UniProtKB/TrEMBL annotation:
PANTHER family from the UniProt entry: CYSTEINE-RICH RECEPTOR-LIKE PROTEIN KINASE 10, RECEPTOR-LIKE SERINE/THREONINE-PROTEIN KINASE SD1-8
Assigned keywords, A-Z: ATP-binding, Kinase, Nucleotide-binding, Serine/threonine-protein kinase, Transferase
Protein name: S-locus receptor kinase C-terminal domain-containing protein
Gene3D superfamilies in the cross-refs: Transferase(Phosphotransferase) domain 1
């Protein structure tokens, strides 16, 4: 998985990657009423002017260390370029 993730991240603009992650987190909210509709997701993905709301507490939690490690590795690679 590491190589596929690295290829995805290296070929993307950092803000686009973060936007996709943020939208993904909105889609897995524990309360379905808090999740965006598919048309809203498509609009958020296709627009640079729509402000993507911050997700509430995620329904799933992998672990802080793993998420921070991935973001730190990505930040280091962006700085080196």
């Amino acid at each position: 998985m590491g190589t596929k993730f690295n290829n995805l991240v290296e070929s993307s603009v950092p803000n686009e990657v973060l936007k996709c992650i943020q939208i993904g987190l909105l889609c897995v909210q524990s309360d379905p009423a808090d999740r965006p509709t598919m048309s809203t997701v498509v609009a958020m993905l296709g627009s640079d002017t729509i402000t993507v709301p911050l997700p509430a507490k995620s329904a799933f939690y992998v672990g802080r260390f793993i998420a921070e490690s991935i973001l730190n590795i990505y930040a280091i690679r962006v700085k080196l370029k």
